[in-house]
Design goal:
The protein has about 500 residues and is mainly α. It has helices at about 40-45, 50-70, 80-85, 90-120, 125-130, 135, 145-150, 155-175, 185-210, 220-230, 235-245, 250-260, 260-270, 280-295, 300-310, 315-320, 325-330, 335-365, 365-380, 380-390, 395-425, 430-445, 455-460, 460-470, 475-480, 480-485. The chain is globular.
Length: about 500
């Protein structure tokens, strides 16, 4: 997650957006850019040589114009029912692109490790392959290239989407033609290519989604994307593994790669939004996203935002880092864990995320962060209860299921609001770089903080460890007073029906 995050994948609410700055976005997701956007590029060109003060003003004006182009003006927005929102073409695109984004990650996490183990490789070698995940946490390094350059001149976003998907299909399909015992170097090379291509696809899909979704649909659209991302894991982590017992690995990897072909076909028909001018130089692509973010938010507010992105999910993430060993220590057998824990966890997260997206249409992103964050915090206490009861014997399987529904459902709610917040915090002019940077910050707890959980459990015991996880969720909630006040104007609320 990718982000882990997720996708396992974080702005000032667009309160300053002027309702008359641009016409309302058309309902079709393939619609061309609003006419007013061209003026943004012209204005930027005419002030390129101005003084530092004027240049800063131009960046702010560009940011306002770009946000206005993606916002839904309150007075002219077309009123739609919740079901029409959910079943719209825009949400269909979120489903397909979410599936395309999640598949390669689960190929690396589930399918590749099973492939290597089945072919007799040592666990140390298999463990070393986890280094292939590094591109997901460092993708912001080459995100400016995605913002700056076109490849096939089909469109700034469309070019990179198509390229990354073609490379992924070829490299995943090719994996099955090599014997890890004889060609471990080639397998490692293909895994690296998959990781870089997948991280690049995440960069551009995040940017494209921010650009074509109206502001009030960011919550629902990102929730649907994230859950499609998770469900994609059922292919390489389920269907493909079952196939491996009956057919060759060549067939398995080719089947898995072929599952991405429908996503590629849809990508060929995507139409660029063109709501923001492309950076005119690599320097601008690297420097301006950071300068614009700090200028728009202010140094202190920008620091609060970065800290919030780091802390909001840290307690929930750490609580789940050693979930399977925790279930085993409680005395549940592997069959129970596989049937109850894994299935309840997955579908509770999916349902929680989808409900979160629907609720955000009425709540808005700011208030959703408060409500869902509180639910996310409180449900960690279910693990405290299990750990306490575990001292006297294995708790009931039904209690385990109830706790997991709360924990994973609450985590799904929190993730849906969190991902939408990250998207809203970006300026559409510099979407790819800013989204990649903020989503990379959100992945730090998963990558580094979770690595300390084993030591913490050994020192504290399970019950005190989960109490600590609950306490670690509090600072992120307190930062909401600064980054998403409850009563602040929030353009992510859908127009009233």
């Amino acid at each position: 997650m990718p982000s882990t995050a997720s996708r396992e994948s974080a702005t000032t609410p667009d309160a300053t957006t002027t309702a008359t700055a641009a016409p309302a976005p058309q309902e079709q997701p393939f619609s061309k850019a609003p006419a007013g956007v061209g003026g943004i590029a012209t204005n930027a060109d005419s002030t390129a040589q101005s003084t530092t003060t004027a240049a800063a003003a131009d960046v702010n004006a560009t940011a306002e114009g770009a946000r206005a182009a993606t916002a839904t003006p309150e007075g002219t927005a077309k009123k739609k029912s919740v079901w029409r929102e959910i079943l719209s073409k825009r949400m269909g695109i979120c489903v397909v692109t979410g599936f395309a984004s999640g598949m390669p990650l689960f190929v690396l996490i589930n399918l590749l490790s099973a492939f290597l183990r089945k072919e007799g490789l040592d666990l140390k070698v298999i463990g070393a392959f986890s280094l292939m995940m590094i591109p997901y946490t460092w993708k912001f390094v080459w995100a400016p290239l995605v913002d700056r350059y076109q490849i096939f001149h089909l469109g700034r976003r469309k070019d990179w989407i198509i390229l990354s998907q073609v490379v992924l299909i070829i490299s995943i399909g090719a994996m099955g033609f090599f014997d890890p015992q004889q060609s471990i170097g080639m397998v490692a090379l293909l895994a690296t290519i998959i990781a870089f291509s997948s991280a690049t696809q995440d960069i551009v899909l995040d940017a494209y989604r921010r650009e074509f979704l109206p502001t009030h649909e960011l919550g629902l659209g990102n929730a649907i994307f994230v859950n499609a991302y998770r469900v994609a894991g059922l292919v390489p982590g389920g269907i493909s593994l079952i196939m491996a017992d009956y057919v060759s690995w060549t067939v398995v990897f080719n089947f898995t790669a072929a599952c991405l072909i429908p996503c590629l076909i849809m990508s060929l028909f995507l139409r660029e939004q063109n709501i923001a001018h492309a950076p005119r130089s690599l320097k601008e692509a690297v420097v301006e996203p950071f300068r614009e973010f700090i200028t728009r938010r202010g140094v202190l507010a920008a620091l609060f935002t970065v800290c919030f992105v780091f802390l909001y999910k840290i307690g929930d993430s750490m609580a789940l880092a050693l979930a399977t060993p925790f279930y085993m220590d409680l005395g549940y057998n592997l069959t129970t864990i596989g049937i109850v824990a894994k299935n309840v966890g997955l579908w509770s997260t999916v349902i929680g995320g989808l409900l979160g997206g629907v609720f955000m249409l009425k709540l808005g992103i700011n208030r959703a962060l408060w409500i869902f964050g509180f639910i996310q915090l409180v449900t960690i206490l279910g693990f405290v209860l299990l750990a306490h009861l575990g001292q006297y014997g294995t708790p009931s399987v039904w209690l385990l299921a109830v706790v997991l529904i709360g924990e994973y459902g609450g985590g799904g709610l929190g993730t849906s609001a969190f991902v939408a917040f990250i998207a809203k915090e970006t300026n559409p002019v510099y979407t790819a770089t800013q989204l990649a940077l903020l989503s990379s910050f959100s992945a730090v707890p998963r990558t580094f903080c979770n690595a300390t959980t084993g030591y913490l459990v050994e020192g504290l015991g399970w019950e005190n460890f989960f109490i600590l996880c609950t306490a670690l969720a509090v600072p992120g909630m307190l930062l909401l007073f600064k980054v998403a006040p409850w009563n602040q104007k929030d353009d992510s609320v859908a127009p009233s029906a």
